Please model this.
Amino acid sequence: MTVLASLNSGLRAALAADGHVIVIGEDVLDPYGGAFKVTRGLATAFPDRVLTTPISEAGIVATATGLALRGFRPVVEIMFGDFLFLAGDQIVNHAAKYRAMFNEQVRVPLVIRAPSGGRRGYGPTHSQSLEKHFLGVPGLWVVAPHSLGDPGALLRQAIFDVDDPVLFIENKIGYGEALLREAPPYEIVTLADHAAPFPTIWLRPPGPCDGLLACYGGSVRFALDAAAVLREREQLNLGLVVVTQLSPTPASHLEAILRNGAPAAVVAIEEAPAEAGWGAEIIASIEQIRDTHRLGAIAYRRVGANAAVIPSARTLEDAVLPRTEDIVAAVLDCF
Amino acid sequence: MTVLASLNSGLRAALAADGHVIVIGEDVLDPYGGAFKVTRGLATAFPDRVLTTPISEAGIVATATGLALRGFRPVVEIMFGDFLFLAGDQIVNHAAKYRAMFNEQVRVPLVIRAPSGGRRGYGPTHSQSLEKHFLGVPGLWVVAPHSLGDPGALLRQAIFDVDDPVLFIENKIGYGEALLREAPPYEIVTLADHAAPFPTIWLRPPGPCDGLLACYGGSVRFALDAAAVLREREQLNLGLVVVTQLSPTPASHLEAILRNGAPAAVVAIEEAPAEAGWGAEIIASIEQIRDTHRLGAIAYRRVGANAAVIPSARTLEDAVLPRTEDIVAAVLDCF
Amino acid sequence: MSAHDGSMRLAVTDRASSRADHYRLASGIRAFERMLLDQFATGRIGGTTHTCIGQEVTAVAVTAALERERDCVFSNHRGHGHFLAYCGEIFGLLAEIFGRSDGVCGGRGGSQHLHRRNFYSNGVQGGSVGNAVGVALAEKRKRSGAVTCAWLGDGTFGEGVVYEAMNIASLWRLPIVFTIEANGIAQTTPTGMQLAGSIAARCRAFDIPVEEVSGRDLAEALAAAAHAIDATRSETRPHAIISHAARLGPHSKGDDTRDAAQLEVAWAHDPLVMLRGQIGRAADAIDRDIAVLMQDALARASEATA
Amino acid sequence: MSAHDGSMRLAVTDRASSRADHYRLASGIRAFERMLLDQFATGRIGGTTHTCIGQEVTAVAVTAALERERDCVFSNHRGHGHFLAYCGEIFGLLAEIFGRSDGVCGGRGGSQHLHRRNFYSNGVQGGSVGNAVGVALAEKRKRSGAVTCAWLGDGTFGEGVVYEAMNIASLWRLPIVFTIEANGIAQTTPTGMQLAGSIAARCRAFDIPVEEVSGRDLAEALAAAAHAIDATRSETRPHAIISHAARLGPHSKGDDTRDAAQLEVAWAHDPLVMLRGQIGRAADAIDRDIAVLMQDALARASEATA
Ligand SMILES: Cc1ncc(C[n+]2csc(CCOP(=O)(O)OP(=O)(O)O)c2C)c(N)n1
Ligand SMILES: Cc1ncc(C[n+]2csc(CCOP(=O)(O)OP(=O)(O)O)c2C)c(N)n1
Ligand SMILES: [Mg+2]
Ligand SMILES: [Mg+2]
Model:
């Protein structure tokens, strides 16, 4: 089962489970089924609850927010995550605000799915990972599925278990990845709690852990590859912290992992330019935990894209986006 | 001279110096002179180059971007920084992209001014500091004036010395602050270089430095107050790092300061919720520098707003936004 | 002893109400707004507040034409009149603007961010019109028969999301009434400096029928609103009401840049004076009642919170 | 030896050009787009590309009516035809799409992000229309006499920023022609499922005069475009051209969800066939020339970069 199939069946299950679930987006009808096929088959099965829309990212999110205010559980597809800023004001000043500013008298259970990321030669405006710009918005959750979790179950969790808007960041290249039920040689530890309900997957290596790779979504694959290279080539034993809940920061998960032993190095990996990104938040959060628990010093590195527009030419794009070698180099640089 | 007067005369000087400077925004004409009076008098002096607009944040920034592409140096006023997301797609996918995606064949010298911040009882949608969401965008500069620099000169620098879009974050409360020519007991050190042309003001305390307060814009005043309290009450000797260039991170400035001696503590202060904010970037950047130069361990704290919508009621708002006591507490917590 | 029942409410009106009842509500809204401006002047309240002086009759007329039990309202930054016409809750609103925990949103929302039953507002121009479209879609899907009333100013036709919202509403045949207050100004900018063409033509270009009325004439506005709302409900498709009535007060507090002559002309056409003229001497007693109500509300809002 | 001068260009046309010259350009655009689809099919190029098969005549007609030296063009995601009609640079565009350093943007921009002299494009729907308004404002202020042509699809009328742009352009009397390609579809969505009312009425509601033409008829399109562009220039105010011509190819590559019957009808009205009919036998020689040009361009684009 691929990430794509899992998301598709998760969405199908959500539609089947609750008549309040409504899928809204551009070109989501069959036979097309959305630009990345996540909605394929759904309009056929639920013709009344899969709505194709004009090209109006703000209008769609606005409409879905109104639906959510009145008891529905809409799931919006933004065709490319690159266009999230078009709906940015709706997300930040409308959907994420109403519950608190109306003094907890309303809820806005809304999911906004956004296929993101590059490596397909789609060029500067169709390849970005803009989720870092939506972290730390009070009232907004940001989550990202990956092959180590159950993306479909995660989507259902976002739809049903949270009464606030959730930005759901899918990775375009990640769609084709097969779900991993196990990840030898690692032990898979799943962390989730009330404050951070979206599970962090902690891959514990056998034996003592030399360092941690923190990653999410489209970077998980590269982190796994880098860890394998480092294990084989350098006998370095790395754990992976695969975060699903990008915001609010799942500090409790990080704490649980760190209390198990402070790593000598933490490398945070993301597809966007690292400046002011997710990795910075992870590092700042871990530093806080380290200090609170008086753990030893940690060497940090951030791996992300160059601070550059993503070029269309695949060779140029490859040079801009982070690769396995960059992670390997960052880890080695710590030691 | 206040920050407001300095900005106003800086803008006036820019208009006088170059006929390509055009001021565009909502309600910027006289006698009103803009919601916060930064443009007051300018339309009278330059009737042809101060344009009041419909209520169209995206359209205004789009228009200014087109102007900039064709040789003008527009200065846009977004009435409240809260509305920046309405122009977000224009900023990120248009203004900040063209130069690089057209392979350096064009330039977009555009300044977008955004009065930001709370403490005036303006409520959830008119009090935010949303600049953290625009950090780390390739091709975009983000700068913030404050009373320790020369806000008017900074604005002219943003207009003339940089050929890329600049997001210029003003603090509403800060407008009324008097410019500080000196700041006893500190020595004022100004750092600026090619990579980070917008000056960082480093306030060096006399004697050994126990820690650093990193801050910008509207938080400078609180940092100064907190440092004074800590000096008097706790005999702690703190330096201030007053950053002007919020993005790209002025790493060279931070490095210059740190090479002068690693502080035991760094507290990063911002008015927005600290999660995934400016302070996280500062901490991650300093950690990189610390590691590179093998400096001793630093205790970090972040001070920001609660992760909450900013309430209208002033008492509730005060409880949400960071105050001097919060900085004092954070510093003490480090020791 | 106070002249009201202690509920600190204005009695709301419907289509069957008498002119005097409508007047009481409209005049009550005016008195409320004046009281707010006074409180601002004395520094008792801060922040920002947009009063609707001059536009009360539109608020009363349109809201009276709604079915208050099921219909929904999405208002904007200048929403006190919409709110009071909807639920009459003087104290709840005043307490909210005073930042009290017994305000309708616990003091969190303040003047521009109100919620009560099916009433919502947001101070960001335009975006709430899109949310209103979603509310209308929700009600259509629930088959509640509810109409949603989205309030917006003429200046807000600068915002692109308004067109995205009108397009979706018309395309999906949603039961929504776009109620446009054409007061000829936006903050300090006259309509001629911010709007090309016409609002009516813009609505019609989205296949949205338009009722254009004078917001000075209660009977005319009520009839037009009733017509638009009924048609919206029975045809399940959007309609627009454009009501022309000048903003007589400042944009927010004391920030009016219009010259005295212009304001004098506007005041000479005060809709409330026209309505008052229509009900004759009864107005005096009503206004005395209202003054007491306002005083009592203010007194209670000035007490410490329980 | 090759049948062209080595410049790897299509000759561009103007108002005085012969039908045969216009045909050469339009047919050249078609051949270019077909070549691209072939290259996609064989995996030689990746990413995304939107071809304009069926819409070439509109691109040629409107661009011919512009003054190529001073006028400006802001194009969209489906811009190859606009680009080639503007400057004819087959190789520069092909190299760009191949991601070569000798492409017009060094391979950074790719299919959707082109720049050459006064030509610009962006793949985000709608936003570039706002940028075009700024370009028009710049040219007006410079008194260059230039008209700016903003290309947009019918589906892009879903985007709010288009209305913000039209409003500003009309209000400030800017010399811009909104050129709307009404191909009846957006990606997979027919216009009827995404647009209420009409595009012409929407433009007129912003006080923007409209020329609505068939994009199948070169002479008609050219005359209308000339009229709109001249009026824009002389009156210094925006005009709109709405050109109806079906998209005959896929949205991007191989992703056409329309049924065969529908496509057959569309192909039966292929504008290029109509134009070809008008010039008679000369077309054969032209097409042979073009085929050689494409081959040569492809061969050169397949060589290693210098
Ligand atoms: C997106 C946005 N931009 C700007 C503002 C600031 N603002 C508040 S009210 C207003 C004028 C609104 O004019 P109009 O829509 O005509 O309503 P009116 O105030 O006349 O009732 C402006 C510009 C805002 N609240 N939201
Ligand atoms: C803001 C934005 N939303 C969605 C898309 C994805 N997209 C690319 S082309 C297209 C359809 C455009 O339709 P139309 O404007 O009619 O132009 P056409 O493709 O028919 O020429 C869409 C939805 C985009 N590029 N930008
Ligand atoms: Mg108005
Ligand atoms: Mg189309």
Summary: The interface with chain B takes residues 46-48, 96, 98-100, 103, 107-113, 122-126, 155-160, 186-189, 193-195, 255, 257 of chain C (CB under 8 Å). Residues 183 and 246 of chain C are 4 Å apart (CA to CA). Chain C has a mean pLDDT of 95.
